[in-house]
Amino acid sequence: MRNYTSRTNIMTVTFKSDEWVSGTGFNASFVAVDKDPPTCSENEKECADLLGCVAFAKICDGSNDCEDESDEQNCVCEQIPSELSICKGTIDYGTMVYPNLYGHENETVLLNSPILGSLQALQSTPHPCHDDVFAFVCSLLAPKCVGNMIKPPCRVWCPDIMASCQNLTDLVPDICATLPFSEDCYINRATNQPGAGGPEGPGSASGCGGVLRGLNSTFQSPNFGRGNYGNNRDCVWSIRVSPHLVPEISFHSFKLEGGPADGNCPYDYVRIFDGEWPDSKFSSIRFQSGETQDAERLCGELTEKLVVRPKSYIVSVIFSSDGQNSKEGFSASYTTRDRGALPCQRGEELCDDNAQCIPLSMYCDGKFDCWDKSDEKDCQCNPLQGELEDLCARRDGSNYVSFPNMIGHKTANELQNSQEYSSLKSLMRSLCHVDIAVFVCEMMSPSCDRSTATSKAPCRSWCEEIRSACESEAEWPSDFPSCDIIESQDANNCVQGPTSLHCYHGKGANFRGQIAVTETGRNCTAWADHQYEVTNFQWANLDNNNCRNPGNVAERPWCYVDNQWEYCRVPPCSGQVCRNRGLPRNVQAHPVKEFYWPGDKVTYQCASTYTLKGSAVIKCLDNSTWSSSLPTCIVNEYRQLLEDLFDVYSAEAAPSELPVDVTTVFSGHVVNIVSLDETGPEVQTEVVVEFRWIDNRLSWTPTSYGNIDTLQVAYERVWAPTVILQRNADTGFTRLPTVDVTLTSSGEVIWQVQTLVTTTCDLDQYLFPFDSMTCPVCLKTDLTKGERLSCPLEGNTTAENNLNCSTSSQTSTGEWSVTITAESTNDTGCLNLALQRNPTYHMCTTIAPTIILAILMAITFLIPIDKGDRLSYGMAVLLSMVVSLVVITSFLPRSTNIPFVGTFVVVSMSFMAFFMLVTLAIIIISGKEGDLPSWARTVFLRYMAQCLLMGNLAKKSYTLEVGRSKKDVIYENGSFTNLWEEGPQRAEEKSTGEQTKPVDANLSAMISGIRESIDSLNANIEAMGQQKEDEESEWVVLAHVLDRLCLVLYIISSIVAVPLSLYLGHP
């Protein structure tokens, strides 16, 4: 058996089983026993269930501290009893909550308490134990209440007072521990405090908090330098120096528990406030350095010195730690510097301590804005009197004002004696805005709430609306404060002006209605989804998704629809709009609104079968009238016919019964031949083709529709045959253009297309340049769908210049003459182009040079053999023929059929090459040495020469004849000389008288024989030389015969090549 004991009077037992194995269950019982009531201290109250205690400071604080939540029941703010009016001035609020911190349950118990007498005695004490003790006791007797929630005195306010006033019996013992350490509490320190409580002046503060007043001082976290600062510590140091000084705080050492991420400090942290904490009106210092930081908290560890420069001479430094992970803490000091003079802007006033400028709208608003709280001093409501009462008497009867006003006048007399007073009165009579008089009154004599002695400034939204409408007025004061002086005001705690919830004034900056629909009828999205407006225009009353004009930049209220903005359906209160006049029958308008602003335009149109009579666009004029009367709609026969024809018509269905059999009449003509490419071959032509077919579904009676005989409709709206271009040479061409078709009342549909087409051709190039070409432009329908084409019959109507199957037309393009005919067979319709070339150009530029080159080749055989340029000439002619062949082929397409002229050139080139080889052989023969064979001499020099008309060139053989002409010769230097020739020398010898010796007879006989032999030898040598010259002449003559033979053969071959080429090259 197991027992369980509940801590409360409620216990819940839950039983649950799964879908698997089940057991036998359980049996239990309970018994209720008396529980001893809790023991509560004098600072606590028992919960209604008697199960616990709750501190008086935590009753009605918004959190459930009792199990039965009884501490948050019956929480109501009540007026402070008049008997506590002696507390006025020390506390700045008028409502309290029961029980108070003395435990008084209601007003009766409070008034019967002896503490009231002690409170009066404490007020009259000339030298209290602490300057704040009276205000502190008042806040205990009458704790502040806001929104039915308690705002008890702050814990940081309590320790100094309790330490200084230990002998005062009127204070609740141990009250400090029950007070909150947060910003959700109340504190009101006295302006000047004596040195009681906490360290002051030069020196240091080593404990947990205190007041520092010296020109410089130091302070540190608890136990710094001796250990960790500990857990759950809350310390507040209040630095209070002279108002003309500003403290400058330096953190020399800083090591706290860090947050989970940089910029996040939820555990241990330091915060610094300008002003007396926890007054939320004074801003917290935003740290600009630190390893881990967020907007207002500093934590983690700093690696270098951090200097903080507050703005106030009263600075609160707060240190807080959670329940774990404490660190070494921090050590800090501060010095002071002179503030210097503060220049206040227009619409601002210097606080009494000369340390801060605040807007005039913040004076006497019930909240402390000056650090010395002088803005809420001497605030009182005075009745309107004299001329001000006549000008600014309020309808609700609250004719009380508070000064200073928004312009800076301290009293009513100062206002009335000022130079701008007359201008303000004139401005009140202006027509620039309906609320200008009320607004000027609120600016120069702010209304005052007598119950709280607080004044309210005009709301910024109202100010912006008035200023944008009236700033251009001559009476508008130049020193009028700008609207941003009240930007920080609570939008619910300002004078909104007599605004309407159904219309707007000016540009609608102060519109507060709940209209959330745009002009187009769309619902607005919430302003919360658009952070820019919410952040920058907090004064603009951006409630939910209602239409507003944040920033006063638009012409009228607007809102967001998703991420786009639109004007709202909010009328101006001036009524300066054009009202919706409704719509006559069959008239349509765009846009449709309840009203239109000057400058708006409305576009009118009629239904599809009607025509608009009147202005199609009408404008709303500046005087709120329309520029013209409403238009009307009259019946449009043309549109009515279209609607009747195509009401049930389907372009998907063919205009015949099944099976589909539609015959389309085809005709057309060629407008122009744009280009012709023979190498393709292909032709680009501009053609007009026309298709006509009968679709009985599209017939009508003209007299029923205003005698309309024909209609022009879009191609896509009617059935049309599938037409495909045959022999298409343009890859970018996919279909004929879908131009409008013409309908006739008889049901005939006419589709006429004018377009450029590129198609292939058939070129018969054999007889180039006497060749011809056929270029058909053919269009084919889908025979499988029952679509047929036919030529126009006799009597059929076609477009002008269109060809039928029995007509033709002539044209020309370049060197071609063109004959155009039309034909149609079954599913194909063609425009045939028969082209015949004019040969003049190519005969002169291509053929003639080829013939001339062939003739020039014959000259090769007439050039002398011994000339060196004979071969080069022949090669030049051959190469020229090659060039001619290239030129010819460049004009014609590549084909297996070679044109005649090409074949002729190839054959001629073959002959030329052959005879060039023969010429080479002849040249070789002409230089040959030796005897010419007798058969060659007989065949070539005799018979062949005679055939070639060269005569008999054969010669007789030469015979050697030996004669004796000299008897006495000697051989000297290759020649023989007569040794016995008598000359002058011999005679001279005889004349000398010398006698010649007698010659021996034998010797003389021998000499005679030798002389005869020498003579015979000379004769043989001369014969041999003559014979050699005769042999060389016969080879040359043979070469001449061969040249003549080649010339004749070349001429004959060239002549034979013509019929041969015709025979061999014909396809």
Automatic annotation (TrEMBL):
Chief location category: membrane
InterPro entries: CUB_dom, Frizzled_dom, Frizzled_dom_sf, Kringle, Kringle-like, Kringle_sf, LDL_receptor-like_sf, LDrepeatLR_classA_rpt
Domain Kringle: 502-573
Disulfide bonds: 60-75, 208-235, 364-379, 432-470, 606-633
Record SMART domains: CCP, CUB, FRI, KR, LDLa
GO molecular function annotation: ATP binding; cargo receptor activity; extracellular ligand-gated monoatomic ion channel activity
Cited CDD domains: CCP (cd00033), CRD_FZ (cd07066), CUB (cd00041), KR (cd00108), LDLa (cd00112), LGIC_TM_cation (cd19051)
Stretches that traverse the bilayer: 846-865, 872-892, 898-925, 1045-1064
Domain of life: Eukaryota
Boundaries of every Sushi domain copy: 566-635
PROSITE patterns membership: CUB (PS01180), FZ (PS50038), KRINGLE_2 (PS50070), LDLRA_2 (PS50068), SUSHI (PS50923)
Cross-referenced Pfam families: CUB, Fz, Kringle, Ldl_recept_a, Neur_chan_LBD, Neur_chan_memb, Sushi
Gene Ontology CC annotation, any one: plasma membrane
UniProt KW keywords: ATP-binding, Disulfide bond, Kringle, Membrane, Nucleotide-binding, Phosphoprotein, Sushi, Transmembrane, Transmembrane helix
Subcellular location: Cell membrane; Membrane
Domain FZ: 72-188, 376-497
Membrane topology value: Single-pass membrane protein; Multi-pass membrane protein; Single-pass type I membrane protein
Limits of the CUB domain: 208-337
Entry protein name: Uncharacterized protein LOC118409982
Taxon lineage: Eukaryota, Metazoa, Chordata, Cephalochordata, Leptocardii
